[in-house]
From TrEMBL:
Residues 14-223 form the Metallo-beta-lactamase domain. Keywords: Exonuclease, Hydrolase, Nuclease, RNA-binding. SMART domains: Lactamase_B. The keyword Signal does not apply. It comes from Streptacidiphilus alkalitolerans. This is MBL fold metallo-hydrolase.
Amino acid sequence: MVTIEFWGGLGVIGGSKVMVRDGAHRVLLDIGLDIPSGRDPFRAPVRTRPGRELADRLRLDVAPHIPGLFDPAALDPGSPLAEPVGAAGDTAVFVSHPHIDHVGLAGFVRADIPVHAHTDAVDLLRALDASGQGLAHGDPHWHRLDDRQRVAVGPMEVECVAVDHDVPGASGYLVHTSDGTLAFTGDIRFHGRHPQRSWGFTDRAADCDVLVTEGTTLGWETRGPLRGEADVERDFAAALERTPGLVLLSMYARDLERVGAFLGLAGAAGRSVVWPAPVAAFLRLAGVGGRAEVLSAAEVPLSDVHGAPSRYVVAPDPDDLPSLLDLPVGEGFPASVLVHANGEPLGPFEPRWEPFTDWLAALGVELRQIGCSGHADQDQLHHMLERMRPRVVFPIHTTAPARLHPPLGMSRVLAGYGRRYDFRGRTAGRAEG
């Protein structure tokens, strides 16, 4: 019997970890940083202890107790999780995309377990590592995948299928097992730059036996029309044109396509974008522009920014708010704006958000939020279900899984942490660990 276990992504946004077992073989889909439920005790301002990142999380039950998955060097001495499970090659990990809540624990996977990801995702993760912003415990030995490539794991075949998300290399997976096919969306949207990828995944997964889907927006109350990347670019261009002083920018640098678009818009408006030094190093390594186009704050004198604030866009470090005092913003300077395009801090649910907005208000800097979601909205999720027609659906990666309403004849299962399910959605007992 093939079974499915859920080790994260339940009751929270992020942290997806889905284990599929076929006989003695295991496939783990995603290995993100998060907890089963509740509030993460490692949220800011708490800092992890070097060398204890995984062991401390396990001690507090905010990492999955999966036997034979992690490098023994990252575990407490004598941990029962350190013993290997089965033979080499019996377990494999597949990462859907390079966001921390899906890949953050990948550096702790033991060396004899292969870790797979789309080749574009691997390129981005290697650039992060080379710029000093890589995974805790270092990168695993990545196995690169191309779109539609299949990998055998015992009796299973795992197929990588590209989807649209707000980061390069985003993929869903089809796990072809002895009992049927399980489809896993990873993070998916249908209103981004490449909707054909997500609809292609939907059609590729048509009539699958089981669907495990993200449902991020099920817990959101949305108002107004769905925003896309064209709306984001239009609003950024308007801010560049209408702001007489310095434009501040908060965006997620891993969204390389948006970075490229913003650099082009800033250049057309006669402005240069200045990034924190680690971000500039990452962007250059990731192949975004050259040294003349991707400028580091370490290379641009503050006197230049003060001398002509209307010629610059500055991306401040969200963890160094006092550095805002060094910029030409506030009383005595031309009006400024901070354009928030899905950057950090991500929103009011983050502990860093309130201090961030307090500093902007104290300096008289307008906050303008112009982003668009990297996740399918509720209507798109339901349309995907109607078009895909899985027999059983498990909604995860959401605070409101019960708000996914499948069509008649389809079973929805609200998964329990560490429980096993069969391909009909029936409970098959507790997982080990």
